[in-house]
Write the C-alpha coordinates for this entry.
Amino acid sequence: MSRVGLVLVSHSARLAEGLAELAAQMAPDVAIIPAGGSEGDLGTDFDLVSDALGRAQSGAGVILLYDLGSAKLVADIAVEMLGDPTTAAVVDAPLVEGAIAAAVAAQSGAPLDAVLSAAASALHPGSDGALAAGNRVEVELTNDVGLHARPAGLLVRALAGLDAEVRVEHAGRTADARSVLALLGLGAHAGARVTVTADGPDAAEALLRVQTLAAGGFAG
Protein backbone atom coordinates (compact mmCIF):
# COMPACT_ATOMS: atom_id res chain seq x y z
CA MET A 1 0.00 0.00 0.00
CA SER A 2 1.40 3.40 -1.00
CA ARG A 3 1.28 6.03 1.70
CA VAL A 4 1.86 9.76 1.65
CA GLY A 5 5.46 10.56 2.57
CA LEU A 6 6.78 13.37 4.76
CA VAL A 7 9.82 15.61 4.39
CA LEU A 8 10.88 17.63 7.44
CA VAL A 9 12.78 20.75 6.40
CA SER A 10 14.66 22.40 9.24
CA HIS A 11 17.66 24.65 9.75
CA SER A 12 18.90 22.06 12.23
CA ALA A 13 19.84 18.52 11.22
CA ARG A 14 19.38 17.35 14.82
CA LEU A 15 15.90 18.81 15.01
CA ALA A 16 14.79 17.22 11.74
CA GLU A 17 16.30 13.83 12.61
CA GLY A 18 14.86 13.79 16.13
CA LEU A 19 11.40 14.71 14.91
CA ALA A 20 11.55 12.07 12.18
CA GLU A 21 12.44 9.48 14.82
CA LEU A 22 9.53 10.55 17.03
CA ALA A 23 6.97 10.59 14.21
CA ALA A 24 8.14 7.18 12.98
CA GLN A 25 7.13 5.67 16.32
CA MET A 26 3.52 6.39 15.39
CA ALA A 27 3.81 5.77 11.67
CA PRO A 28 6.22 2.88 11.04
CA ASP A 29 5.09 2.36 7.44
CA VAL A 30 5.43 5.99 6.37
CA ALA A 31 8.54 7.41 4.71
CA ILE A 32 9.52 10.30 6.99
CA ILE A 33 12.70 11.91 5.66
CA PRO A 34 14.61 14.59 7.59
CA ALA A 35 16.19 17.38 5.55
CA GLY A 36 17.93 19.59 8.07
CA GLY A 37 21.03 21.72 8.10
CA SER A 38 23.47 22.67 5.38
CA GLU A 39 26.93 21.14 4.99
CA GLY A 40 27.12 20.19 8.65
CA ASP A 41 25.99 23.59 9.90
CA LEU A 42 22.73 25.41 10.51
CA GLY A 43 20.85 26.36 7.36
CA THR A 44 18.87 24.82 4.54
CA ASP A 45 20.09 22.98 1.47
CA PHE A 46 18.09 22.77 -1.76
CA ASP A 47 19.83 19.59 -2.93
CA LEU A 48 19.22 17.92 0.42
CA VAL A 49 15.53 18.80 0.32
CA SER A 50 15.17 17.67 -3.29
CA ASP A 51 16.82 14.35 -2.50
CA ALA A 52 14.55 13.86 0.53
CA LEU A 53 11.53 14.64 -1.63
CA GLY A 54 12.47 11.87 -4.03
CA ARG A 55 13.11 9.37 -1.22
CA ALA A 56 9.76 10.11 0.43
CA GLN A 57 7.75 9.57 -2.75
CA SER A 58 6.05 6.18 -3.03
CA GLY A 59 3.27 7.15 -5.41
CA ALA A 60 0.77 8.66 -2.97
CA GLY A 61 2.38 12.09 -2.78
CA VAL A 62 4.57 13.94 -0.30
CA ILE A 63 4.01 16.81 2.09
CA LEU A 64 6.82 19.05 3.28
CA LEU A 65 6.86 20.77 6.66
CA TYR A 66 9.33 23.47 7.64
CA ASP A 67 10.52 25.41 10.67
CA LEU A 68 11.34 28.96 9.48
CA GLY A 69 10.66 31.19 6.50
CA SER A 70 13.77 30.44 4.47
CA ALA A 71 13.13 26.72 4.90
CA LYS A 72 9.70 27.27 3.37
CA LEU A 73 11.30 29.04 0.43
CA VAL A 74 13.62 26.11 -0.23
CA ALA A 75 10.74 23.64 0.14
CA ASP A 76 8.56 25.63 -2.26
CA ILE A 77 11.31 25.71 -4.89
CA ALA A 78 11.91 21.96 -4.53
CA VAL A 79 8.23 21.28 -5.19
CA GLU A 80 8.14 23.67 -8.15
CA MET A 81 11.09 21.88 -9.72
CA LEU A 82 9.26 18.56 -9.80
CA GLY A 83 8.06 17.27 -13.15
CA ASP A 84 4.56 17.07 -11.65
CA PRO A 85 4.30 19.51 -8.73
CA THR A 86 0.79 18.25 -7.89
CA THR A 87 2.42 15.18 -6.31
CA ALA A 88 3.84 17.21 -3.42
CA ALA A 89 2.85 20.20 -1.34
CA VAL A 90 4.29 22.44 1.36
CA VAL A 91 1.97 22.84 4.33
CA ASP A 92 1.79 25.82 6.66
CA ALA A 93 1.68 24.11 10.06
CA PRO A 94 3.72 23.98 13.25
CA LEU A 95 6.64 21.67 12.47
CA VAL A 96 6.45 19.28 15.43
CA GLU A 97 2.69 19.13 15.88
CA GLY A 98 2.03 19.11 12.15
CA ALA A 99 4.51 16.29 11.52
CA ILE A 100 2.95 14.09 14.19
CA ALA A 101 -0.59 14.70 12.97
CA ALA A 102 0.41 14.15 9.34
CA ALA A 103 2.34 10.97 10.14
CA VAL A 104 -0.65 9.40 11.89
CA ALA A 105 -2.97 10.34 9.02
CA ALA A 106 -0.53 8.96 6.46
CA GLN A 107 -0.13 5.71 8.40
CA SER A 108 -3.90 5.19 8.21
CA GLY A 109 -3.70 5.40 4.40
CA ALA A 110 -5.27 8.84 4.06
CA PRO A 111 -4.82 10.57 0.67
CA LEU A 112 -2.61 13.61 0.15
CA ASP A 113 -5.31 16.22 0.74
CA ALA A 114 -6.40 14.55 3.99
CA VAL A 115 -2.82 14.37 5.28
CA LEU A 116 -2.38 18.05 4.43
CA SER A 117 -5.56 18.85 6.33
CA ALA A 118 -4.40 16.84 9.34
CA ALA A 119 -1.12 18.73 9.47
CA ALA A 120 -2.80 22.12 9.10
CA SER A 121 -5.36 21.34 11.80
CA ALA A 122 -2.56 20.72 14.32
CA LEU A 123 -2.84 24.38 15.30
CA HIS A 124 -6.22 23.55 16.86
CA PRO A 125 -5.86 20.03 18.30
CA GLY A 126 -8.93 19.94 20.50
CA SER A 127 -10.76 21.56 23.37
CA ASP A 128 -11.99 20.94 26.87
CA GLY A 129 -15.64 21.00 25.89
CA ALA A 130 -18.24 18.80 27.54
CA LEU A 131 -18.74 15.25 26.39
CA ALA A 132 -21.59 14.72 23.99
CA ALA A 133 -24.35 12.39 25.04
CA GLY A 134 -24.08 8.93 23.58
CA ASN A 135 -22.57 5.51 24.05
CA ARG A 136 -19.70 5.44 26.50
CA VAL A 137 -17.28 3.08 28.16
CA GLU A 138 -14.60 3.40 30.80
CA VAL A 139 -11.23 1.80 30.12
CA GLU A 140 -8.07 1.41 32.15
CA LEU A 141 -4.70 2.24 30.60
CA THR A 142 -2.80 -0.91 31.51
CA ASN A 143 0.22 -0.19 29.31
CA ASP A 144 3.43 1.26 30.74
CA VAL A 145 3.11 4.81 29.42
CA GLY A 146 -0.62 5.59 29.30
CA LEU A 147 -1.71 7.78 26.40
CA HIS A 148 1.83 8.74 25.44
CA ALA A 149 2.82 9.40 21.82
CA ARG A 150 2.79 5.90 20.36
CA PRO A 151 -0.38 4.65 22.13
CA ALA A 152 -2.16 7.86 21.16
CA GLY A 153 -1.14 7.30 17.55
CA LEU A 154 -2.40 3.72 17.67
CA LEU A 155 -5.74 4.92 19.03
CA VAL A 156 -6.15 7.47 16.25
CA ARG A 157 -5.30 4.84 13.64
CA ALA A 158 -7.76 2.35 15.16
CA LEU A 159 -10.60 4.79 14.50
CA ALA A 160 -9.66 5.51 10.89
CA GLY A 161 -12.51 5.00 8.45
CA LEU A 162 -15.27 4.93 11.08
CA ASP A 163 -18.23 7.27 10.91
CA ALA A 164 -18.26 8.28 14.55
CA GLU A 165 -17.36 11.21 16.76
CA VAL A 166 -15.20 9.84 19.56
CA ARG A 167 -13.97 11.75 22.58
CA VAL A 168 -11.83 10.79 25.55
CA GLU A 169 -12.15 12.31 29.03
CA HIS A 170 -9.59 12.25 31.83
CA ALA A 171 -9.32 14.37 34.97
CA GLY A 172 -11.95 16.83 33.79
CA ARG A 173 -10.36 17.34 30.37
CA THR A 174 -11.82 16.20 27.05
CA ALA A 175 -10.04 15.40 23.80
CA ASP A 176 -10.97 14.47 20.26
CA ALA A 177 -9.89 10.84 19.92
CA ARG A 178 -8.76 11.48 16.33
CA SER A 179 -6.15 14.03 17.40
CA VAL A 180 -2.83 12.74 18.75
CA LEU A 181 -2.00 16.17 20.13
CA ALA A 182 -5.30 16.48 21.96
CA LEU A 183 -4.87 13.02 23.46
CA LEU A 184 -1.37 13.85 24.64
CA GLY A 185 -2.79 16.96 26.29
CA LEU A 186 -4.92 14.83 28.60
CA GLY A 187 -1.85 13.69 30.52
CA ALA A 188 -3.41 10.24 31.03
CA HIS A 189 -0.69 8.15 32.69
CA ALA A 190 -0.29 4.40 33.12
CA GLY A 191 -3.04 2.98 35.30
CA ALA A 192 -5.40 5.89 34.68
CA ARG A 193 -9.02 5.27 33.85
CA VAL A 194 -10.47 7.26 30.96
CA THR A 195 -14.03 7.61 29.72
CA VAL A 196 -14.62 7.19 25.99
CA THR A 197 -17.81 8.49 24.38
CA ALA A 198 -18.86 7.82 20.79
CA ASP A 199 -21.72 9.09 18.64
CA GLY A 200 -22.63 8.25 15.06
CA PRO A 201 -23.42 5.21 12.90
CA ASP A 202 -20.18 3.44 13.84
CA ALA A 203 -20.20 4.39 17.52
CA ALA A 204 -20.45 0.83 18.81
CA GLU A 205 -17.59 -0.34 16.59
CA ALA A 206 -15.47 2.63 17.68
CA LEU A 207 -15.93 1.80 21.36
CA LEU A 208 -15.17 -1.85 20.71
CA ARG A 209 -11.92 -0.94 18.97
CA VAL A 210 -10.87 1.32 21.83
CA GLN A 211 -11.64 -1.36 24.40
CA THR A 212 -9.76 -3.99 22.42
CA LEU A 213 -6.74 -1.74 22.00
CA ALA A 214 -6.63 -0.85 25.70
CA ALA A 215 -7.13 -4.47 26.79
CA GLY A 216 -4.16 -5.48 24.66
CA GLY A 217 -1.92 -2.89 26.25
CA PHE A 218 -1.82 -0.81 23.07
CA ALA A 219 0.31 -3.41 21.34
CA GLY A 220 0.65 -2.90 17.62
Observations:
- Confidence is low (pLDDT under 50) at residues 125-134.
- Residues 5-123 form a domain with the Rossmann fold fold (CATH 3.40.50.510).
